[in-house]
Description:
two-stranded antiparallel sheet; 4 helices; alpha+beta; elongated; 23% strand; single chain
Amino acid sequence: MASGVTWSNSMDGNNYATAMDKALKQAVTKAGIIIERQAVALAPTDSGRLKGSITWRTRSDGDGVRTPAKANDGVSKPSRKWTAHIGTNVEYAPHVEYGTDSHVVRAKRGKYLTFKVGGHWVKKESVKIPSIPAQPFLRPALSAKKRVIMRDFQKWVDIFLKRGK
């Protein structure tokens, strides 16, 4: 053949789709770590339980099967979508992030709520809980780091692809 172009769907014997999938996962993981660190820095501290519970994980919602971008064109697009989830399993975290409205708590079992105030036991049929202002830490963490992540994401994918060679 005098002239022509040859392309192979591989990287040094590795499947290119697999290498790209791995690079995307690593880049999304890096983004998750950056946002997690920012969320920890922004989280309010009382006992430290909330800060200590903030974690990240990556997840793919695809099956890894590549599908044609256009019918019969021989080009395929990735079917995996990697996401990073940054959050906490602490039950009161949503109340810290979003705040609460004032509300009334009533006894569920028995006639009274029983609790200690100033060393003395108190019985009440209901208690009004005041509103708690929001102290957001997760959403501001994403907002604070979104521009950096968007700027560096392609660079990270390129670095991870080169390492995969």
